[in-house]
Amino acid sequence: MTSKVFIDGEVGTTGLQIKARLESRNDIELLQLAESDRKNPEIKRDILNAADLAILCLPDDAAREAVALIDNPETRVIDPSTAHRTAEGWVYGFPEFDAGQRDLIAKAKRVSNPGCYAISSVAILHPLIKGGIIAPDWPATINAVSGYSGGGKGMIAEFEDESHDQNSSSSFFTYGHTLSHKHVPEITRWSGLSHAPVFVPSVGRFAQGMIVQVPLPLWSLPGPISAADIHGTLAAHYEGQACVMVAQMGVEESVHRLDPESLNGTNELRLYVFANQGGDQAVVMGLLDNLGKGASGQCVQNLNIMMGLPEMTGLT
User: Fold this and answer.
1) What residues are labeled active site?
2) Rounded distance, CA 276 to CA 87, Å?
Protein backbone atom coordinates (compact mmCIF):
# COMPACT_ATOMS: atom_id res chain seq x y z
CA MET A 1 0.00 0.00 0.00
CA THR A 2 1.41 3.36 -1.02
CA SER A 3 1.23 6.49 1.12
CA LYS A 4 0.08 9.75 -0.43
CA VAL A 5 2.59 12.51 0.32
CA PHE A 6 2.26 16.19 -0.57
CA ILE A 7 5.33 18.45 -0.42
CA ASP A 8 4.06 22.00 -0.01
CA GLY A 9 6.94 24.11 -1.29
CA GLU A 10 8.64 21.46 -3.40
CA VAL A 11 10.43 24.08 -5.51
CA GLY A 12 12.53 25.34 -2.59
CA THR A 13 15.95 24.01 -1.63
CA THR A 14 14.69 21.58 1.04
CA GLY A 15 11.58 20.63 -0.95
CA LEU A 16 13.61 19.74 -4.02
CA GLN A 17 15.92 17.53 -1.96
CA ILE A 18 13.00 15.74 -0.30
CA LYS A 19 11.29 15.24 -3.65
CA ALA A 20 14.49 13.79 -5.14
CA ARG A 21 14.65 11.28 -2.26
CA LEU A 22 11.02 10.22 -2.65
CA GLU A 23 10.07 10.37 -6.33
CA SER A 24 11.64 7.04 -7.33
CA ARG A 25 10.10 5.10 -4.45
CA ASN A 26 7.24 2.72 -5.13
CA ASP A 27 5.88 2.96 -1.59
CA ILE A 28 5.18 6.70 -1.96
CA GLU A 29 2.69 8.48 -4.22
CA LEU A 30 3.65 12.13 -4.55
CA LEU A 31 0.71 14.52 -4.87
CA GLN A 32 1.50 17.69 -6.80
CA LEU A 33 -0.11 21.02 -7.57
CA ALA A 34 0.05 22.73 -10.94
CA GLU A 35 2.20 25.85 -10.87
CA SER A 36 -0.90 28.01 -11.42
CA ASP A 37 -2.61 26.49 -8.35
CA ARG A 38 0.18 26.92 -5.81
CA LYS A 39 -1.30 30.08 -4.28
CA ASN A 40 -4.95 29.04 -4.53
CA PRO A 41 -5.97 28.31 -0.90
CA GLU A 42 -9.00 26.19 -1.80
CA ILE A 43 -7.07 23.91 -4.13
CA LYS A 44 -4.25 23.71 -1.59
CA ARG A 45 -6.79 22.85 1.12
CA ASP A 46 -8.09 19.97 -0.99
CA ILE A 47 -4.68 18.45 -1.64
CA LEU A 48 -3.51 18.88 1.96
CA ASN A 49 -6.58 17.03 3.19
CA ALA A 50 -6.18 14.32 0.55
CA ALA A 51 -2.65 13.53 1.70
CA ASP A 52 -1.69 10.86 4.20
CA LEU A 53 1.25 13.08 5.07
CA ALA A 54 2.01 16.70 4.19
CA ILE A 55 5.52 18.16 4.31
CA LEU A 56 5.60 21.95 4.70
CA CYS A 57 8.73 23.36 3.08
CA LEU A 58 7.49 26.91 3.57
CA PRO A 59 8.26 30.18 5.36
CA ASP A 60 7.02 30.14 8.95
CA ASP A 61 3.81 32.13 8.43
CA ALA A 62 2.89 30.11 5.34
CA ALA A 63 3.49 26.88 7.27
CA ARG A 64 1.09 28.02 10.00
CA GLU A 65 -1.49 28.95 7.35
CA ALA A 66 -1.13 25.54 5.71
CA VAL A 67 -1.72 23.74 9.02
CA ALA A 68 -4.86 25.82 9.53
CA LEU A 69 -6.21 24.52 6.19
CA ILE A 70 -6.05 20.89 7.35
CA ASP A 71 -9.29 19.54 8.80
CA ASN A 72 -8.82 15.88 7.89
CA PRO A 73 -7.90 14.19 11.21
CA GLU A 74 -5.97 11.52 9.30
CA THR A 75 -3.60 13.94 7.54
CA ARG A 76 -0.26 13.95 9.30
CA VAL A 77 2.29 16.75 9.01
CA ILE A 78 6.05 17.17 9.04
CA ASP A 79 7.07 20.82 9.22
CA PRO A 80 10.70 21.58 8.27
CA SER A 81 10.16 25.32 8.94
CA THR A 82 10.91 27.04 12.24
CA ALA A 83 7.22 27.64 12.93
CA HIS A 84 6.47 24.69 15.23
CA ARG A 85 9.80 23.58 16.67
CA THR A 86 8.95 24.76 20.16
CA ALA A 87 5.14 24.62 19.78
CA GLU A 88 3.00 22.60 22.15
CA GLY A 89 1.38 19.56 20.58
CA TRP A 90 4.22 19.03 18.11
CA VAL A 91 6.72 16.18 18.47
CA TYR A 92 10.37 17.05 17.93
CA GLY A 93 11.54 15.07 14.90
CA PHE A 94 14.94 13.94 16.15
CA PRO A 95 14.60 10.14 16.55
CA GLU A 96 17.95 9.79 18.33
CA PHE A 97 17.07 12.50 20.89
CA ASP A 98 16.17 10.03 23.62
CA ALA A 99 14.85 6.54 24.19
CA GLY A 100 11.18 6.63 23.25
CA GLN A 101 11.47 9.52 20.80
CA ARG A 102 10.96 7.22 17.82
CA ASP A 103 7.72 5.95 19.34
CA LEU A 104 6.51 9.52 19.84
CA ILE A 105 7.30 10.32 16.20
CA ALA A 106 5.67 7.11 14.98
CA LYS A 107 2.39 7.97 16.72
CA ALA A 108 2.42 11.73 16.08
CA LYS A 109 0.06 13.68 13.86
CA ARG A 110 2.37 16.72 13.94
CA VAL A 111 6.17 16.51 13.77
CA SER A 112 8.57 19.45 13.64
CA ASN A 113 11.70 18.72 11.61
CA PRO A 114 14.81 20.08 13.42
CA GLY A 115 16.93 22.93 12.11
CA CYS A 116 20.39 22.13 10.76
CA TYR A 117 22.38 24.09 13.35
CA ALA A 118 19.98 23.00 16.07
CA ILE A 119 20.06 19.25 15.52
CA SER A 120 23.85 19.23 15.96
CA SER A 121 23.80 21.55 18.97
CA VAL A 122 21.03 19.56 20.66
CA ALA A 123 22.78 16.29 19.81
CA ILE A 124 25.85 17.55 21.70
CA LEU A 125 24.29 19.42 24.62
CA HIS A 126 21.26 17.30 25.53
CA PRO A 127 23.15 14.11 26.52
CA LEU A 128 25.74 16.14 28.45
CA ILE A 129 23.08 18.00 30.42
CA LYS A 130 21.02 14.85 30.96
CA GLY A 131 24.15 13.00 32.09
CA GLY A 132 25.15 15.72 34.56
CA ILE A 133 28.35 16.62 32.71
CA ILE A 134 27.23 20.22 32.36
CA ALA A 135 24.53 22.03 34.36
CA PRO A 136 21.41 23.45 32.69
CA ASP A 137 22.54 26.97 33.63
CA TRP A 138 26.04 26.48 32.18
CA PRO A 139 26.96 29.40 29.85
CA ALA A 140 27.06 27.52 26.54
CA THR A 141 28.76 28.90 23.45
CA ILE A 142 28.17 27.51 19.95
CA ASN A 143 30.14 28.35 16.82
CA ALA A 144 29.20 26.95 13.42
CA VAL A 145 29.89 27.14 9.71
CA SER A 146 27.47 26.07 6.98
CA GLY A 147 27.46 25.81 3.24
CA TYR A 148 25.59 28.61 1.51
CA SER A 149 22.65 26.38 0.53
CA GLY A 150 21.36 26.86 4.07
CA GLY A 151 20.61 30.49 3.24
CA GLY A 152 18.00 29.59 0.61
CA LYS A 153 17.57 30.83 -2.93
CA GLY A 154 18.81 34.35 -2.27
CA MET A 155 22.14 33.25 -0.86
CA ILE A 156 22.53 30.49 -3.44
CA ALA A 157 22.10 33.08 -6.18
CA GLU A 158 24.60 35.35 -4.46
CA PHE A 159 27.24 32.63 -4.65
CA GLU A 160 26.31 30.88 -7.91
CA ASP A 161 24.48 33.24 -10.24
CA GLU A 162 26.94 34.50 -12.85
CA SER A 163 24.91 37.68 -13.24
CA HIS A 164 25.39 38.48 -9.56
CA ASP A 165 28.33 40.63 -8.52
CA GLN A 166 30.72 37.99 -7.25
CA ASN A 167 32.96 40.66 -5.77
CA SER A 168 30.26 41.32 -3.17
CA SER A 169 30.50 37.75 -1.85
CA SER A 170 33.49 36.87 0.28
CA SER A 171 34.65 33.30 0.82
CA PHE A 172 33.60 33.33 4.46
CA PHE A 173 31.49 35.56 6.67
CA THR A 174 29.78 35.54 10.04
CA TYR A 175 26.22 36.67 10.58
CA GLY A 176 23.51 36.66 13.26
CA HIS A 177 25.38 39.35 15.17
CA THR A 178 22.29 40.29 17.19
CA LEU A 179 22.66 36.82 18.79
CA SER A 180 19.02 36.08 18.02
CA HIS A 181 19.28 33.45 15.29
CA LYS A 182 15.98 31.66 14.69
CA HIS A 183 17.43 28.33 15.88
CA VAL A 184 18.29 29.64 19.36
CA PRO A 185 14.86 29.00 20.97
CA GLU A 186 14.88 25.46 19.56
CA ILE A 187 18.41 24.79 20.83
CA THR A 188 17.57 26.19 24.25
CA ARG A 189 14.43 24.12 24.71
CA TRP A 190 15.58 20.77 23.38
CA SER A 191 19.11 20.86 24.80
CA GLY A 192 17.76 21.46 28.29
CA LEU A 193 19.61 24.74 28.80
CA SER A 194 17.94 27.19 31.15
CA HIS A 195 19.52 30.17 29.35
CA ALA A 196 19.98 30.78 25.64
CA PRO A 197 23.45 29.89 24.34
CA VAL A 198 25.70 32.43 22.67
CA PHE A 199 25.43 31.26 19.07
CA VAL A 200 27.56 32.66 16.23
CA PRO A 201 26.89 31.10 12.79
CA SER A 202 28.93 31.61 9.63
CA VAL A 203 28.85 30.73 5.94
CA GLY A 204 31.62 29.44 3.70
CA ARG A 205 31.94 29.35 -0.08
CA PHE A 206 30.82 25.74 -0.48
CA ALA A 207 27.31 24.60 -1.34
CA GLN A 208 26.51 22.23 1.50
CA GLY A 209 28.04 20.72 4.59
CA MET A 210 28.29 21.93 8.18
CA ILE A 211 30.42 21.88 11.32
CA VAL A 212 28.99 22.89 14.71
CA GLN A 213 31.37 23.42 17.66
CA VAL A 214 30.65 23.55 21.39
CA PRO A 215 33.78 24.55 23.37
CA LEU A 216 34.05 23.06 26.87
CA PRO A 217 36.56 24.57 29.32
CA LEU A 218 36.67 21.51 31.56
CA TRP A 219 37.99 23.43 34.57
CA SER A 220 34.70 25.38 34.63
CA LEU A 221 32.46 22.32 34.84
CA PRO A 222 31.09 20.95 38.13
CA GLY A 223 33.30 18.21 39.50
CA PRO A 224 36.37 16.65 37.89
CA ILE A 225 35.25 16.11 34.28
CA SER A 226 37.56 14.73 31.60
CA ALA A 227 37.27 14.58 27.83
CA ALA A 228 36.91 10.82 28.22
CA ASP A 229 33.86 11.39 30.44
CA ILE A 230 32.31 13.58 27.74
CA HIS A 231 33.07 11.05 25.04
CA GLY A 232 31.70 8.18 27.11
CA THR A 233 28.46 10.01 27.81
CA LEU A 234 27.89 10.80 24.13
CA ALA A 235 28.90 7.31 22.96
CA ALA A 236 26.53 5.65 25.43
CA HIS A 237 23.65 7.93 24.44
CA TYR A 238 24.01 7.17 20.72
CA GLU A 239 25.06 3.53 20.95
CA GLY A 240 23.53 1.50 18.13
CA GLN A 241 22.21 4.49 16.20
CA ALA A 242 22.54 4.36 12.42
CA CYS A 243 22.55 8.11 11.78
CA VAL A 244 24.32 9.59 14.81
CA MET A 245 27.81 8.30 15.47
CA VAL A 246 30.57 9.29 17.89
CA ALA A 247 34.11 9.09 16.54
CA GLN A 248 36.67 7.28 18.68
CA MET A 249 38.66 9.20 21.25
CA GLY A 250 42.13 10.21 20.18
CA VAL A 251 41.18 10.95 16.57
CA GLU A 252 42.86 14.34 16.94
CA GLU A 253 46.09 12.45 16.36
CA SER A 254 44.96 11.58 12.82
CA VAL A 255 42.27 14.14 12.01
CA HIS A 256 44.31 17.28 11.39
CA ARG A 257 41.52 18.92 9.43
CA LEU A 258 37.77 18.44 9.60
CA ASP A 259 36.12 19.01 6.23
CA PRO A 260 32.53 20.33 6.47
CA GLU A 261 31.70 18.70 3.13
CA SER A 262 32.88 15.18 4.00
CA LEU A 263 29.41 13.83 4.93
CA ASN A 264 27.54 15.43 2.05
CA GLY A 265 24.95 13.18 0.48
CA THR A 266 24.51 11.18 3.68
CA ASN A 267 22.04 11.27 6.55
CA GLU A 268 24.80 10.96 9.13
CA LEU A 269 25.67 13.23 12.03
CA ARG A 270 29.15 12.45 13.35
CA LEU A 271 30.34 13.80 16.70
CA TYR A 272 33.99 14.36 17.60
CA VAL A 273 35.52 15.08 21.00
CA PHE A 274 38.85 16.89 20.82
CA ALA A 275 40.95 17.83 23.87
CA ASN A 276 44.24 19.51 24.67
CA GLN A 277 47.18 17.68 26.22
CA GLY A 278 46.70 19.43 29.53
CA GLY A 279 43.24 17.93 29.88
CA ASP A 280 41.56 21.16 30.91
CA GLN A 281 40.00 22.05 27.53
CA ALA A 282 37.78 20.15 25.11
CA VAL A 283 35.54 20.89 22.16
CA VAL A 284 32.74 18.73 20.78
CA MET A 285 32.14 19.08 17.05
CA GLY A 286 29.21 17.90 14.99
CA LEU A 287 29.76 17.18 11.30
CA LEU A 288 26.81 16.73 8.92
CA ASP A 289 25.23 17.64 5.60
CA ASN A 290 23.02 20.64 6.34
CA LEU A 291 20.65 19.43 3.58
CA GLY A 292 20.82 15.80 4.74
CA LYS A 293 20.54 15.08 8.47
CA GLY A 294 20.11 18.84 8.80
CA ALA A 295 16.99 19.02 6.60
CA SER A 296 15.70 16.73 3.84
CA GLY A 297 17.34 13.49 4.95
CA GLN A 298 16.02 13.95 8.48
CA CYS A 299 12.56 14.67 7.06
CA VAL A 300 12.59 11.42 5.07
CA GLN A 301 13.77 9.55 8.17
CA ASN A 302 10.80 10.98 10.10
CA LEU A 303 8.43 10.14 7.23
CA ASN A 304 9.61 6.53 7.24
CA ILE A 305 9.04 6.25 10.97
CA MET A 306 5.58 7.83 10.78
CA MET A 307 4.53 5.58 7.92
CA GLY A 308 5.81 2.42 9.59
CA LEU A 309 8.42 1.87 6.88
CA PRO A 310 12.04 0.75 7.37
CA GLU A 311 13.71 3.82 8.84
CA MET A 312 16.65 3.99 6.43
CA THR A 313 14.57 3.60 3.24
CA GLY A 314 15.86 6.07 0.68
CA LEU A 315 18.68 7.22 2.95
CA THR A 316 21.50 4.77 2.26
Assistant:
1) 116
2) 40
- One domain for residues 170 and 286: yes
Q: Are residues 248 and 162 in the same domain?
A: yes
Residue 84's Cβ-count burial label (10 Å; 0-12, 13-18, 19+) is: buried
pLDDT, greater one: 149 or 72: 72
Q: Return the number of other C-beta atoms located less than 10 Å from residue 125's C-beta.
A: 25
**Which pairs with CB-CB distance under 8 Å and at least 24 residues apart come from 15-18?**
15/55, 15/57, 17/291, 17/295, 17/296, 17/297, 18/55, 18/57, 18/296, 18/299, 18/300
Cα–Cα distance, 119 to 294 (Å, whole number): 7
Residue 56, strand partner residues: 8
Tens-place pLDDT, residues 58-114: 999 999 999 999 999 999 999 999 999 999 999 999 999 999 999 999 999 999 999
Of 235, 214, 219, the C-alpha closest to 278 is 219
Distance CA 135, CA 221 (A): 8
Please check whether residues 251 and 299 belong to one and the same domain: no
DSSP bridge partners of 273: 284
